[in-house]
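Are you able to produce any protein sequence you like plus the matching C-alpha cells because I've never seen that pairing?
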Amino acid sequence: MAKQIIDHIRLLDEEPLYTLCEALKFFPHKISRASIERYIRRGTRGVALETILIGGRRLTSEAAIRRFLIEQQNTAPENAQPTPTGKMSARELNKKCKKYGLPE
C-alpha cells in the first residue's frame, strides 16, 4: 500500500500526465484502448501499468508506460507453459497415418 502511495505521488509531482487515449501514442506498437485498460486492471506477466484517478479520469505518464514495458520484459511468466504450435512430431503423424490406413 505504501509503495502505491509513493508511486502516485511520483506520478503527480514529477511526470506529465495523459489520459488513456492520449497515452496510446507512447506504446511502441499500436494497441487498443481495451488493451491499455487490461494492462491497468490485470496487468501482464504480473506487471500492471501505473495510473492515478483524478476527478474521475484515469491518467498515466509516458515514463510509467516505459517502466511497464521494461518490467514486463524482465519478468518471466509464472508457471510458463510452452505455447502450442499446432505442429505434430513425425512420430505422432506416423501413428495417425497408421490409424487411418494412410501411407507414412
